[in-house]
TrEMBL record, chain A:
Keyword check for Secreted: no
SUPFAM superfamilies recorded: PHP domain-like
Entry keywords, A to Z: tRNA processing
The protein's name: Ribonuclease P protein subunit p30-like isoform X1
Automatic annotation (TrEMBL), chain B:
Native organism: Priapulus caudatus (Priapulid worm)
Family: Belongs to the eukaryotic/archaeal RNase P protein component 2 family.
Gene that this sequence comes from: LOC106819311
Origin superkingdom: Eukaryota
Keywords (A to Z) from UniProt: tRNA processing
The protein, known as: Ribonuclease P protein subunit p14-like isoform X1
From TrEMBL, chain C:
Name of the protein: Ribonuclease P protein subunit p29
Source organism per UniProt: Priapulus caudatus
Highest taxon of the lineage: Eukaryota
Main localisation: nucleus
Any Pfam family the entry gives: RNase_P-MRP_p29
Length: 309, 122, 230
């Protein structure tokens, strides 16, 4: 089973995000996404029309990464796990022009992209056309549009996920709408591609993974589906986000310097060959020196540096 | 899609829960005794399921520890999901931000005594 | 050859009017009674070996097929070329796709790898310090990987993880690699993720979306898929 994930921990200016992460660690989450919420990526001028001008561009904050010490993640280390921090950007989709703005580098730098459509047409656009990872809703308020099965199934096919934020269910004023909307989402998606997350504004808003899985049962998901909503589906969502950064989901290219130490073995064979090629070709001793088979995890194996790298 | 079928059904389910409050060092307006704890649980049920729905879920507090605000609750098995979700969706106790933490759930009381994943048979 | 009787039912004489005009029409003498004409006709159109049979048949008023009809041969375009392509069955028999294990050694294919590196350098215009250009990345989708040193980085089958070697053959669903131990390994593409390094860039190939013949890959339009999960 995939690790428990909470893909919506709100990053707010006056509240400590680190506290929320520590709470998540204490409760058993291994993957968290710190969410930067910007309501409008385009600037409206006085007449109410959205207009993007170089001088009035909305400043998008950089992805947040919280520094955690070994002691902080001690609980996870005991289990042999570690906290994976992702960055997420959420915005309200109220205008088709916003998508063009979202394709720029400052927003594309985020790991996950989420939108909150406001009309049926924009919901259709989010499901079928644009390259985003999560579709979220203002689940505490009445949904102003119908969720039609056709765009929803297209979204599921593309790997887009639908989010249910459970912190909206805390307040008695929004609880009824929260459950009604959650039921509608569940009904139209048949439990597929649904992720449940906290939307935590404070550390106390985060609930344990099994509690959240039980909430899934409350809104009509089957038992395996509700557990998937906080683990497997979240993992699939993150993989979909990684696919965005690849070339047509077939190839991904990175610089060698970005390769982690534990992944160095994957290019060991190539490097060996390159160094032999650049070394003395005429002598046969290079062949005799060659190592034997390559094992899966051999961080201690000899690695000859490539020329120029 | 798979379905879990439980063969030996128990009538009740037992939960070990605790109430986690924000700023635990700061004293609560009214100290949480076992009576108040039970009241907090039933209030959570009533808030989510209404007067009748909440009243239909019979919860018993078998043990209560005032020190760490933890308790063992007993509920009929068919009401487990209702009780658990009511506890999850509670965020306030007497205007103080809080959260119910469910530590263990088991159809048998003895199941709460030990964690089968960490138990080492000697 | 006996001449037919004058009152033979088969041959009738020319009409009287034509006979009167014979000299003007420049008709030969023997045309008038038909028998001479018949004999000359037979001599013209029947093979000498069958002449006697034909005459006899003619007397007996019988029909004899003198020559067998040979159906005309349709000129085959392939035959015209002088060579033809092998069909699938013949190709399998020739065994051109099987790489004999005895003959494959890693060292013999190292020059192929060197060749491939040179090809990739010119194809992608590589520079270690700079990131790969977007169009160069797209060219990677259509590149030829024969001679590349691939490593299986991740796989659904645990025994395949770590397998590395020079690509000898690429088929629709597999890659045939020769490892350093001179072992010829057939690795299925669909369940593996491959990596290789080139001039300071690490390229990861998600085999699941690479299940195409190398010839087809050149013309294929790749579409983004939902996930790169194994």
């Amino acid at each position: 089973m995939a690790a428990f994930s909470d893909l919506n921990i709100l990053h707010m200016e006056n509240v400590s995000t680190k506290e929320k992460l520590l709470m998540a660690i204490k409760l058993g989450y291994e993957v968290v996404a710190i969410n930067n919420y910007v309501e409008n990526v385009l600037v409206k001028d006085d007449k109410g029309k959205s207009k993007k001008e170089p001088s009035k561009v909305v400043e998008i904050p950089a992805p947040v990464k919280v520094h955690l010490t070994e002691r902080d993640i001690g609980d996870l280390k005991v289990k042999g796990a570690s906290l994976k921090q992702l960055s997420r950007f959420t915005t309200v989709l109220s205008d088709p022009g916003q998508w063009r703005r979202m394709q720029e580098d400052d927003i594309q730098a985020y790991d996950l992209l989420a939108v909150q459509p406001t009309t049926e047409k924009l919901f259709h656009m989010a499901c079928t056309a644009i390259e985003i990872d999560i579709i979220t809703f203002n689940i505490g308020d009445k949904l102003t549009y119908y969720l039609k099965p056709a765009p929803v199934s297209k979204a599921i096919e593309r790997g887009v996920h639908f989010e249910i934020v459970y912190s909206e269910g805390f307040h008695s004023s929004s609880r009824r709408t929260f459950i009604a909307n959650a039921l509608r989402i569940m009904h139209v998606t048949h439990g597929k591609n649904v992720i449940i997350s906290s939307g935590a504004r404070e550390a106390m808003d985060v609930r344990g993974p099994y509690d959240v899985a039980n909430l899934g049962l409350l809104i009509g998901l089957q038992e395996p589906q509700s557990k998937d909503a906080i683990s497997t589906n979240s993992r699939a969502c993150v993989l979909h986000a990684n696919t965005r950064h690849s070339v047509k989901s077939v190839i991904s290219v990175r610089s060698s310097s970005e390769l982690k130490a534990e992944d160095q073995w994957t290019v060991e064979a190539c490097r060996k060959e390159a160094s032999e090629e650049s070394g003395d070709d005429s002598s046969e001793s290079a062949a005799e020196e060659a190592d034997s088979s390559f094992d899966a995890a051999r961080p201690e194996s000899k690695r000859r540096r490539m020329d120029g790298v | 899609m798979y379905e879990r079928r439980v063969i030996t059904k128990s009538e009740f389910h037992y939960m070990r829960v605790s109430l986690d409050v924000q700023n635990p060092a700061k004293a609560l307006p009214v100290e949480l005794t076992n009576v108040y704890f039970k009241q907090a649980v039933t209030a959570a049920l009533t808030r989510l399921f209404g007067d009748i729905g909440g009243a239909m879920v019979a919860v018993d507090v078998l043990k209560y520890n005032e020190g760490d605000r933890s308790a063992i609750l007993r509920v009929h098995s068919h009401n487990l999901v209702k009780l658990w979700s009511a506890l999850t969706l509670t965020d306030r106790y007497m205007s103080r931000k809080c959260a119910f933490r469910v530590h263990q759930v088991s159809p048998y009381l003895m199941g709460l005594a030990v964690n089968s994943r960490e138990y080492e048979h000697t | 050859m006996s001449t037919p009787t004058q009152d033979s039912a088969v041959y009738s004489e020319l009409p009287a009017g034509v006979k009167r005009q014979a000299t003007q029409l420049k008709l030969a003498d023997d045309v008038r009674d038909g028998s001479a004409y018949l004999s000359s006709f037979l001599r013209r159109h029947v093979a000498p070996r069958n002449l006697a049979t034909a005459a006899a048949a003619n007397d007996a008023h019988q029909v004899v097929l003198l020559d067998t009809v040979v159906p005309k041969k349709r000129p085959s375009s392939l035959q015209k070329k002088g060579r033809r392509q092998l069909n699938a069955r013949e190709r399998r028999g020739v065994d051109c796709f099987a790489a004999s294990t005895a003959r494959q050694t890693y060292r013999t294919h190292v020059p192929l790898h060197t060749l491939w590196r040179g090809y990739m350098r010119s194809l992608l215009q590589l520079e270690p310090s700079r990131a790969l250009a977007a169009d160069a990345q797209h060219r990677l989708l259509k590149a030829d990987y024969h001679g590349c040193v691939l490593t299986v980085a991740r796989s659904r089958c645990p025994s395949l993880v770590g397998v590395a070697g020079i690509v000898l053959q690429e088929t629709r669903c597999t890659w045939r690699l020769v490892t350093r131990e001179d072992r010829l390994v057939t690795v299925p593409k669909a369940t593996c993720v491959f990596t290789f390094e080139l001039e300071g860039h690490v390229v990861t190939l998600y085999g699941k979306h690479f299940v195409h013949r190398p010839a087809d890959r050149c013309s294929k339009k790749f579409k983004s898929k939902a996930t790169i999960d194994l």
